[in-house]
Structures are given as structure tokens and as C-alpha cells.
Amino acid sequence: MSNIIESHNLTKVYNPDTIPVNAVNGVNLQVEEGEFTALVGPSGSGKTTLLNLIGGLDYPTGGDVKIEGVDITQMSENKLIDFRLKNIGFVFQAYNLIPVLTASENVEFVMLLQKTSKGDRERRAIELLTEVGLKDKLNKRPSELSGGQQQRVAVARALASKPRFILADEPTANLDSKSTENLLEIMAKLNVEDKMTFIFSTHDQRVIDKARRVVTLVDGKIVSDVKQ
Amino acid sequence: MLFKIAWRNIWRNRTRSLVVIASIAVGLFAGMFMMAFFEGLAKQEVESTVETQLSHIQFHNPAFIADKDVNFTIENGPAIIGRLKKDVNVRATSGRLVTTGMISSSSTASGVEIHGIVPADEKAVSSISKDVIEGVYFTGLKKNEIVIGEKLALKLGVKLHNKIVLTFQSKTGDLTAGSFRIAGIFRSRNSAFDETTVFTGFDDLAGLLGTGDGIHEIAVIVQDGQKTDAVAKVLKKEYPSLLVQTWIELSPQMALLTSIMDQMMYIIIGIILLALMFGIINTMLMAVLERQREFGMLMAIGMNKPRVFFMILLESVMLTCAGIPAGILFTIITVGSLSRHGIDLSAFSQALSQYGFSNIVYPDLQRSMFLPVSLMTAFTAVLSAIYPAIKALRFKPAEAIHKI
User: Fold this and answer.
1) Pairwise pLDDT comparison (B216 vs A177), residue with the higher score
2) Which residue of A11, A172, B141, B327 sits 20 to 30 Å from the alpha carbon of A91, by its own alpha carbon?
3) Count of A–B CB contacts within 8 Å?
4) A78 vs B305: CB contact, 8 Å cut-off?
5) Hey, what CATH class is A3-227 in?
6) Closest residue in A to B308 (Cα–Cα)
7) Is B232 found in the same domain as B84?
């Protein structure tokens, strides 16, 4: 299997001129296509910062991130936005759906940005929402959905752009046990059946147990990298 | 879908959006009101000046204008008046004698401009006859009648039917005087005019001046005030040896005043729109900052900056599209009503009459005002959204998506 993500000596220092904080400190990470990887570690260990750097949401202060051989740290902000649209799916801890759009419109929105035709958008949105078990919630707005349902819409949205991989930052942090289990099943199924690569940060032992690779971070450094 | 998002976003915070819509509507109303008010004020002022003092067109002997020497009468004046009375473009005409002199009562004296007029003709070109508040505008039965302004009467300490003495230079250069009895007292909109202008019978003044049937000034009211320039052009060609002037040429300060009013109007509208701009900036900025996490997410999932910018501008345009019709409707109802009933500014009557303005101003709402004011308001509203939109573009997705 080829590496889909590679980081070399990746570093992120906050407040370099005042009180420097090494959020990510020389991380070398390779992720192969089809992996189901959990980034774990205590609060402040750099999980979210590492995900942000891998996802091109932030620029590192040192090192590089290559996505399928392309160094995204050298890209301009505008190019990076376009790159994210085409290659990366995001699932956030707080769901972050567009509150004024329905579930299906939220899923369609990413495809709209990709200039997909209306018919294709609608068809795929229904497919994806059906896949995450929300066929009957197509026209519900986020405020009418539970946390677990919103997060499933977020997963469907992340998949809508047909990304190379999905980054999920604490996707189950706000969910109850049943919703967590449900979401994990969906993610695991997508990983196995569609070979979708997932990298997620988590504190949740249930999520860690489902992961096939667990990378542990402490003070911005990888202290263990275990395949299970 | 961007339209759908922008439209639904507007109604996420109904109160805030309604405040913005109301601000736009009030801004437009204020702009329209100021335009209508100044337009009405200027129009009334011009009408008042034309009616009481200038008329639309005046004829003079060019030499008379230079030093007001009573010798410089209009050649063939009566014949010209006869010709003008037959002109289809002329509604009324009146020949006048004009000189300056002193008016004296038993207690004091004052400098005045004396107009010798034919009351029947003058009534048709000047509104002074309607402004008489005491007595009559010449009985036509007695000799040496005079009509003076209320302010001058107060200054001289005289009343109706009192005698006053006019002293001035005759045609021969001798100082001559005549005793006149006050037949009427008038009060026009212009207190300065009331204090410095008196009217006597044409023949009475001509007798004292020794000008015979000579005329110093011919006042003309045209049928259509808008065609004053065209009529004057024809008359100028017809009487090249005479000075034929329109009211604008006679009173450039009046043209200047209306032009200054125009400028003032735009300055005030500018200030109103500036205030509106800050109001919208404040509200839109709040809306943008509240949705920081959302904008962070949108940029994270791939919405590029021009689209984010366009979406915020679109929200502002939609608010404007709702605010402008509301403002127009409000303007039509309120300013339309004020145009009919007038705005009573009696509280400032003294100051207003000093400058010749009426106590009651009738705003003049014209259809042609709606487009420029609406465009200015729309431009302001859209311009106001630019800063908040730029602010949104500066959000860093990694930070913004974690904002509470």
C-alpha cells in the first residue's frame, strides 16, 4: 500500500515571539491508503493541531506535509482551500453543519462547491444519507436532529466530495454511547467496504478499540505507534 | 444555493435583520425627505422672489442699471408694454418707475426704493397686493397714495392713513419731496424687502420725478415659468438696445442660493448615509463575528474566499432589497402628506422671514428623486458589508472552527 499522507519533522510553535508553545514537535507520520487510524493522547498533546496541519487548515512552522506526494505546506491559502475541497473530508467535534440548510442540502453544499450538477448532487446526497441511516431525515434542519444524527450528516457531507481521506477531530466527543457506536459502525463500514481512509483524534476508549492503528502523542511528539 | 443560504441567514436573527431593514428604510426616507424639503424650500423661495420682486423677465435701459439715474428710461416703453400684452407667451406685464430716496415720518427717516406702479397692471405681475394686511392696495380714487411694508411702518412709527414724506432726486437733479398718505400696509415673506420697498402710483411719482411717460422697468410674467429663458431669448433679439434679463440674471444670488441648497442637501444626505453606513457595518460585523465558526467550517470544507465574500455581500443586498421598497413606501406616505399640508416652521419665523423664506415649507417630492436616492442607499448598504466581509475572509479556519 502507498502512503497517502506523509509528514516529515512536522513542527508547529504557537507564540514563537512571546511564550513559545510546541504544539507539534518534529512529527514524522506516514498514513497508508485505507487505514483507520486514531490519534490519541492527553489534552494539549497536539492531536487537533496535527490534524489541522495534515488537513491544510493551518501552516506548520517547520517540516512538511505531503498528500500523495504533493507538499501542501507550500500552497497558497486559496490553492489550499481548493485542495481541501477536492481531497479531504472533515468531521468536526461540534458537527459544524450549516444551520439554515437541511440535512440533504448540507451534503449537497460541498458538491455545489465542486460544481456538480443539481441532479447528481441530489442523487448522491440521498445515497449518502441513506448510507448513514438518515434516509428519513433528508429535509430536517440540524436543529431538528440529535447530536448523533448531526454527526452522521457531517460524515455524509465529508464523503460527498469523494475525498482521498477523512479527518475527524473528536467525532464522538459530544455523543452518547448509542450514537457513538452507531457512528463508529458507519465509519468502520465505509473504511472496510469503500476503502475510505480515516484519521481521527479521540479520547474515547471505544473509538480507540475500533481503530486498527493507534498513534499516541504526548507534548507534540509521537510516543507510540501501534497497529492492532 | 448561495442565495438560499444568504436569504435564510438573514432570518436567523429576525430582530437584527429587521433593524437593518428599518435602518435602510429610514436612511432612504431621510434622504428623500431632505431632497424634497430643500427642493420645496428652493422652489418656494424662487416663486416668492419672482412674485414679489423680480417677475420672470425685466426690461431696463442698460444705463439705468449702472447707477439708477432716473433719466435713463426705456425708449418707447409704453409701446413695448402694448406689444408684450399681445404676446401669447406673456401672461402679464407692468411698467414701473424706480428710484431711491428717503422716507420720513414725524419721528424718523429711512432709506427706501420707491416703485411707481400702475396698480391694475402690477397686481398681475406681483403678489404684493395679496400681502396687504391693513388698508387696501391703492384705492385708485385719491392722489399720492403709498403702500409700505409692516416692518417699515413699525420702524417709522406710522399707521394706516398717516402721512409720510418721500424725498428723492428729480430728473433735473434737484431734490424733490412729496407727501403721501398710507393706503395699505403689506407683509410679504421677506422682511428685508418689507423694510426697504414702498409703492406709489405711477403718475404721482412721474409727476415728482419729471419723467413724463418714461418707464424705468418693465416686469414680465410668462405663461410658463419653465420657458422663461426661451421667451427672454426672443425678446433680447427683438430689443437689442435694451437690457432684457431673466430672474436668474437679475438675481444671481438667488441662483447661487438654490445651488448652495442643492449642495447642502447632498452634504446632509451624505451625512445621513454615513450614519446609516456605520449602523449597517456594526450590525453586519456582529452577524459575521457571531458566525465565525461557521465561516471557519465553510472555508475548511472548501468554500473559497470570493464565495464567502459574495455570500456576505448577498445578505446585505437582500436586506437592502427589502429596506428600499419599505423606505419608498414610507416616504410616499409621510412626505406625500407633508407636501400637501406643509411643515409649519413658525417657531423660526423671524429667522426665516429675514431670508425671505416662508413659515410653512411644502416639501416637493418628485418622482425623479427616487432613483438616485435609492441607488445611493443601495450603494451605501453594499459598501457597508465590505468591511465585515473582509473581516470574515481573515478568519483562520483552524482557529475559527473552534470558536464558541
Assistant:
1) B216
2) A11
3) 73
4) yes
5) alpha beta
6) A113
7) yes
Does B398 touch chain A if contact means CB atoms closer than 8 Å?
yes
- Tens digits of per-residue pLDDT, A135-175? 899 999 999 999 889 988 988 898 888 888 999 988 888 77
Say if residue B18 is in the same domain as residue B151: no
Residue-wise pLDDT for B297-355, tens only, equals 999 988 999 999 999 989 888 888 888 899 889 988 998 888 888 887 767 766 666 66
Q: What is the tally of structural domains in chain B?
A: 2
The predicted model scores a pTM of: 0.71
Chain B residues lying within 8 Å of A157, measured CB to CB? 301
**β-strand pairing of A88-91 with A165-169:** parallel
Task: Mark whether B198 and B78 lie in a shared domain.
Answer: yes
Which of B241, B264, B279 delimits the end of a domain? B241
Q: Rounded to an integer, what distance in angstroms lies between the CA atom of residue A39 and that of residue A226? A: 11
Is residue B253 packed enough to be buried (19+ CB in 10 Å), middle (13-18) or exposed (0-12)?
A: exposed
**pLDDT tens track for B218-238:** 999 999 888 899 999 999 999
**Residue B123, all three cell numbers:** 397686481
Closest CA of chain A from B330, distance in Å: 31
| Residues B311 and B162 grouped into a single domain | no
Domain boundaries, chain A: 3-227
3-class DSSP state of A35: coil
Is residue A74 exposed (0-12), middle (13-18) or buried (19+ Cβ within 10 Å)? Answer: exposed
Residues of A with CB below 8 A from B5's CB? 98, 100-101
Query: Do residue B301 and residue A113 have CB atoms under 8 angstroms apart?
Result: yes
Residue numbers of B between 295 and 334 with CB closer than 8 Å to A: 297-305, 307
Q: Do B300 and A90 touch (CB under 8 A)?
A: yes
Please tell me if residue A99 touches chain B, with a CB cutoff of 8 Å.
yes
B237 lies in the same domain as B328: no
Is the CB of residue A32 less than 8 Å from the CB of residue A225?
no
Task: Using a CB–CB cutoff of 8 Å, tell me whether A47 touches chain B.
Answer: no
Whether residues B69 and B44 fall in one domain: no
Rounded to two decimals, the ipTM of the complex is 0.89
Half-sphere exposure of A21 (CA within 13 A, CB side): 7
Q: Which domain holds residue B83?
A: 62-241
Residue A99: pLDDT over 70: yes
